[in-house]
């Protein structure tokens, strides 16, 4: 019998979600995808290069957002709107391709880049309701173009331009953050040694039971900063009380959501928050978002660049970014393994309890009949 190749887009036509996507109750969405909040500031970057003018006001707004949430949105960022709409249109066209065409770029088994359902990370116990395409775009000398989808026509060239422009914008923002820490402009980019960039295009198909699943589970990004382009549907959510309450970030046409990652958080000695976030899905619209992760080189040493008076260092000793990432991943996998074990134990206990009740039932029936 021929095996039918399934992607998530084909599963979206079903009326229930498969059990592999169902989250434990404590992880399920608490707030709707379109219950928008305006807590995350939208900051115009117009005048950012004007050293004696707007720059200081922009810096102050960014600092406040980083101290509160580790998230802000930027407009007037200088990246051409036509490039953003080309990138978005071509990405949507890719996800609309038949499963076989997408699976030509299958990235399972640890390949560096391409298409996959849910996540390329191995050992995840519950799947995310998303399809992704990942490009490893910097350093340029390490690009493997055989892993970059060549359909739809023109996407590869547009992605190249997109990643270059976003590298420029990220460096600009890192300059402002360096100044905010009282350091020279280049301090954060220098701390990255040789900056890596990874572009992840997320496609969240319509979901028949969005209350049971997540498009992307709760996490913080490991790197320095992430620039996220999202469409107008909504689904990005943030928490700053460890998942007790959530807000849905208001989509703003043409804006980038900037998330501070773990690396940025450690470099600032914890002064700037690492954005704790997730993506929810819905049964009305599919959603597209494009995350550009700006990461340090794997061997970049990680340590607070500035420890302010009265502060204790958040890291006891410098570790490399690769080591921090390894520890983070193994902690995540351990948590998910423990959760799985606890769930299995609960099921076994329930089963035992049921058997006990049945035995008691039989005994009392015998007593009645005796
Ligand atoms: O799609 C979103 O809104 C969130 C994406 C994200 O957090 C990620 O790709 O890491």
UniProtKB/TrEMBL annotation:
InterPro entries: DIOX_N, IPNS-like_FE2OG_OXY, IPNS-like_sf, Oxoglu/Fe-dep_dioxygenase_dom, Plant_2OG-oxidoreductases. Keywords: Coiled coil, Flavonoid biosynthesis, Iron, Metal-binding, Oxidoreductase, Vitamin C. GO terms for biological process: flavonoid biosynthetic process. GO terms for molecular function: flavanone 3-dioxygenase activity; L-ascorbic acid binding; metal ion binding. Residues 333-360 form a coiled coil. PROSITE patterns: FE2OG_OXY. Catalyzes the 3-beta-hydroxylation of 2S-flavanones to 2R,3R-dihydroflavonols which are intermediates in the biosynthesis of flavonols, anthocyanidins, catechins and proanthocyanidins in plants. This is Naringenin,2-oxoglutarate 3-dioxygenase.
């Amino acid at each position: 019998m021929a095996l039918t190749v399934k992607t998530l887009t084909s599963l979206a036509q079903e009326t229930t979600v498969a059990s592999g996507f169902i989250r434990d109750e404590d992880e399920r969405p608490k707030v709707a995808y379109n219950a928008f909040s305006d807590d995350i500031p939208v900051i115009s970057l117009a005048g950012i290069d004007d050293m004696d003018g707007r720059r200081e006001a922009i810096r102050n707004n960014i600092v406040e957002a980083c101290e509160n949430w580790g998230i802000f949105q930027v407009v007037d960022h200088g990246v051409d709107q036509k490039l953003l709409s080309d990138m978005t249109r071509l990405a949507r066209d890719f996800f609309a391709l038949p499963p076989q065409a997408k699976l030509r770029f299958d990235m399972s088994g640890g390949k560096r880049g391409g298409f996959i359902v849910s996540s390329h990370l191995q050992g995840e116990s519950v799947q995310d309701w998303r399809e992704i395409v990942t490009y490893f775009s910097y350093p340029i000398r390490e690009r493997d173009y055989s892993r970059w989808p060549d359909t739809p026509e023109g996407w590869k060239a547009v992605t190249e331009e997109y990643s270059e422009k976003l590298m420029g914008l990220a460096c600009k923002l890192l300059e402002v953050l360096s100044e905010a820490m009282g350091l020279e402009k280049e301090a954060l980019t220098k701390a990255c040694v040789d900056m890596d960039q990874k572009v992840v295009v997320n496609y969240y198909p319509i979901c028949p039971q969005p209350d049971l699943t997540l498009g992307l589970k709760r996490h913080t990004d490991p790197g320095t900063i992430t620039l996220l382009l999202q469409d107008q549907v909504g689904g990005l959510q943030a928490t700053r009380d460890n998942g007790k309450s959530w807000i849905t970030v208001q989509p703003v046409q043409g804006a980038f959501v900037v998330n501070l990652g773990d690396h940025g958080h450690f470099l600032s000695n914890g002064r700037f928050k690492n954005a704790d976030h997730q993506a929810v899905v819905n049964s009305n619209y599919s959603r597209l978002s494009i995350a550009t992760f700006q990461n340090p080189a794997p061997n970049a040493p990680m340590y607070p660049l500035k420890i302010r008076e009265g502060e204790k260092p958040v890291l006891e000793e410098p570790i490399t970014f690769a080591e921090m990432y390894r520890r983070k991943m193994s902690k995540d996998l351990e948590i998910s393994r423990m959760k799985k074990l606890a769930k299995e134990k609960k099921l076994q206990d329930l089963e035992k309890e049921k058997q006990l009740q049945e035995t008691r039932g039989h005994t009392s029936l015998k007593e009645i009949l005796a």
